[in-house]
Amino acid sequence: MSRSMDMMEALQALAADKGISPETLMGALADALESAYKRMPGAKEYAWVTIDPDTFDIRVTAQDLDEDGEPYGPELDVTPDNFGRIAAQTARQVMMQRLREVDREMKYEEYAGREGDIVTGIIQQSDARYTLLDLGRVEALLPQAEQVPHERPAPNTRLKAYIVEVRKTAKGPQIVVSRTHPGLIKRLFELEVPEIADGIVEIRACAREPGHRTKIAVWSNDPNVDPVGACVGARGARVRMVVTELHGEKIDIVPFSEDAPDFVAKALSPARVKEVRIHEYDGRAEVIVPDFQLSLAIGKEGQNARLAARLTGWRVDIKSETQLAEEEAFQNQDWAEGEWVTDDATGEQRWVPADGGDALSAEEWEHAAEAPDETTQAGGPGSESSAAASGAEASEAAPAEPGATRGDAAPDDTVADAGGADDGARPVGAGEATAEADGAVPAESAAGEGQGS
Questions:
Q1: Quick one: 262 and 320 in the same domain?
Q2: In sequence order, what are the residues at sequence separation of 6 or more whose Cβ sits closer than 8 angstroms to the Cβ of residue 146?
Q3: Mean pLDDT over residues 352-360, rounded?
Q4: Which residue of 33, 39, 131, 148 could cross-link 142, Cys pair, CB 3.0 to 4.6 Å?
Q5: Domain of 241: which CATH number?
Q6: What pLDDT is stored for residue 66 in this prediction?
């Protein structure tokens, strides 16, 4: 009895220390003792161990098996005389192994299903392949592919990361986190902006180029709450906290609009947009800007146009007023009269207008002969739209239904810029740029967009 009571007390102390219920450990011990019994000489093939929860008495019960391997006959007490000593010796190792398994399972259950949450860890180890974050009871893996370029926090510093996957392995849970996922932006804003946490303000779309710039489009479910102002905070305090956590990544916040031309115009800020024409048949937004705004609209290395495309879900085609005038003059020429001439060198047929204009290839002739597409327009001279450039991943905002022609998009005070415009940006191509809305991700999985310096 004394040995049994000592084992019971040790079991209870171990359960309390590991945070495991005594019943769970009791079952693990019974399995371990059964395994120990079956390794003894003369052990019955069909036997099981029971432990009295009150007295902790251990009993081995067995039955005989027939030719088919089915148990029959009375249950027999086959507990060996020296089983207490054997149990104490053999059960410890097996039970500790089971305890480790239970501990791993509990750690996995703690994080299972938490994909999309933010965790805070302390940087423990970093190399060319990954960085390890200490989360307390477990470690998180930050792969190189999920790290922001040039972001190298020092060891023993705290870092917030976004859980992208929780894997169950033989050594315990493996938690994979990211610093580049757009969902990180959304979660950071939820921590800093109570209106987002309460569902009053929503982050409808996000476009991000990690380490450089992020754009988010926000929407308010309460007409009395300004979504951009709520995200920026008093004197930019809220967005500044997010920017600090991202080590200076620029964040731009623009109001979301279900009117496609208006949304595209705002997404291209800080450039002033004169007109936006929506071509639904090919998912294209044709944007007309003053000549002096072309570089700003395109952004450095096309960043502003690229992020606007990802943020809105439209393929953004930016043209200056001069280029538009040249195209329209070209299309207004009379191409009806002329003749097809075969080039002796290439064998290509070209259309030579009767009025002596430049010869056209078959593709150019077909384009010139097309009637202007019906478009939805927005914009007007001298208006400003709010937005900024940044982002590699973005939430895909479904193209809004075409609306009536609108005046200049002039969303003054509708954008917050934490990082400033792309000064000195150069145009891409010959005065025109087209940005594809590739790599877009749903708003639910994207991060929000705010402005901060």
A1: yes
A2: 164, 176, 177, 178, 179, 180, 181
A3: 70
A4: 131
A5: 3.30.300.20
A6: 87
